[in-house]
Amino acid sequence: YLCLARIINLYGSHNSRLNPRTIALAFMVSDFISLLLQAIGGAATCVSEGLQGKQRGVDTMITGLILQVVSLGAFLLVCLDFAFRCHHGTTDQTPTLKVVRDTKIFKAFGFGLLVSTIAILARSVFRVVELWEGFGGPIWNNEPLFMVLDGAMIGLASLILSVIYPGFAFGDQWAATNWSFRQKRGKDV
User: d(Cα 9, Cα 7) in Å, to the nearest integer?
Assistant: First the structure.
């Protein structure tokens, strides 16, 4: 989410329907709520003694996972809309920004960010399906499927973003593309 905010600043915020700050905050809050629901659900399944209490915990975890899937889907739509608007609109022609956008490492980073996001989305969809029938369901106990669609997806995303580190991709424009949580007179600081 933070990388998209920086990418928007690199291409020109006029190409985005939402400002970078709004995008980052909205998706980070959504992620936080999603993870909180998953944690609450997991805790409820651990401390509940009856089947009904455990099922409520599982349902809460599934709710958090579904929120994560919806949020990631919405994020991908925001990314696609921004890419479409950049392709058909105008980009910031500041020479230093254009140089960064035209590098191979930045283009590889953009592709890597997309692949990483899709991998995390695939993992989240898998977790919803896995938990849908509870802890005793057939998918919950399928270790090869778990290893591929959970661990491997997170591993892939982590590897990609470690190899094609955002700081390298943005080069000397890393600080210039930043935004702030605080606002001053209606504008980002």
Answer: 5
Nearest residue to 113 (alpha-carbon basis) of 66, 59, 158 = 158
Q: What angle do helix axes 20-47 and 2-11 make, rounded to 10 degrees?
A: 170
Task: Look at strands 187-188 and 183-184 and give their pairing.
Answer: antiparallel
Residues 18-42 pLDDT 10s: 999 999 999 999 999 999 999 999 9
- For residue 136, give both structure tokens: 């005793």
User: Crossing angle for the helix pair 51-88 and 20-47, nearest 10 degrees?
Assistant: 160
pLDDT at 49 over 70: yes
Q: Which two tokens stand for residue 174?
A: 């890393």
Q: Which one-letter amino acid corresponds to residue 161?
A: L
Token pair listed for 64: 């958090």
Which pLDDT does position 172 carry in this prediction?
Answer: 83
User: How many angstroms separate the CA atoms of 122 and 132, rounded?
Assistant: 15
| Burial environment of residue 153 by CB neighbours within 10 A (0 to 12, 13 to 18, 19 or more) | buried
Three-class DSSP category at 102: coil
Query: Which residues are CB-contacts of 32 (< 8 A; sequence separation ≥ 6)?
Result: none
Question: Using CA atoms, how far apart are residues 24 and 73, in angstroms rounded to an integer?
Answer: 15
